[in-house]
Specification:
Blueprint (H helix, E strand, L loop, with lengths): L3 H4 L2 H10 L27 H17 L4 E3 L9 E6 L5 H7 L4 E13 L4 E7 L6 E8 L1 E7 L5 E7 H14 L4 H4 L6 E2 H6 L7 H7 L5
Antiparallel strand pairs: 1-2, 2-3, 3-6, 4-5, 5-8, 6-7
């Protein structure tokens, strides 16, 4: 049986959440909201409240800092996520990972499908799983469909690191964490990442930790 606040209308719950101030608290793995999936956005928030919520996601993502944040990560089971990546990385990292800057964007009701059979494996982390990273093999190129915060259609192909970001955030909306797709033997603390696995690609980690790459 849920608490009264759990049973309150979604708009009321979002309003109460925003009234607590920014940045919002990011929900950590183990909270059921990260596993129950989300309901499609269909006007549950009136335009002014939606704009406030989107801004709260932006502020919280930047403060973390991260390159994406999904609504369930702040306790809201709506199919909304935001992404932004200034990509402040060395040239060798940019080339190896296909990491290029992405402007701030709002993804409403996003869904992705692979384009081709290519896969790319890199270490990946999550704001809801602080302190750890693991290698995840993902589609190298995806077609993302959905809408933006104004209801305009989104139909775009993403490659490289931007493709990884949109897959990661869309997975959150389906109750999937990156750990569900990760190579278990690659799991590394942030300290180990800094000391051992800071290379642009995970080949050395795969050899040392004993896992295969696609």
């Amino acid at each position: 049986m849920g608490t009264p606040s759990d049973r309150a209308p979604l708009a009321e719950r979002v309003g109460q959440l925003l009234d607590r101030g920014l940045p919002l608290t990011i929900v950590a793995a183990g909270d059921p909201v990260l596993r129950h999936g989300t309901e499609p956005y269909d006007g549950q928030l009136e335009p002014a409240l939606l704009a406030r919520f989107v801004e709260a996601l932006r502020v919280t993502m930047r403060a973390a800092p991260g390159v994406g944040l999904a609504a369930p990560q702040v306790g809201v089971p709506l199919r909304i996520a935001v992404i932004e990546d200034p990509a402040p990385v060395p040239e060798e990292v940019r080339l190896a990972r296909g990491r290029v800057p992405q402007p701030f964007r709002v993804l409403v009701n996003p869904a992705y499908e692979s384009v081709g059979d290519g896969r790319a494996a890199f270490f990946e982390g999550c704001l809801s799983v602080p302190g750890w990273q693991a290698v995840v093999a993902r589609h190298a190129e995806v077609r993302l469909t959905g809408q933006d915060e104004y209801g305009r259609a989104l139909d775009e192909v993403f490659t490289g690191w931007p493709a990884r970001i949109v897959q990661h955030e869309t997975d959150h909306l389906d109750g999937v964490l990156y750990l569900d797709r990760a190579e278990p033997r690659s799991l590394s603390s942030n300290r180990a990442m800094v000391e051992r696995w800071a290379q642009p690609t995970p080949e050395e980690a795969a050899r040392a930790l004993g896992f295969e790459l696609p």
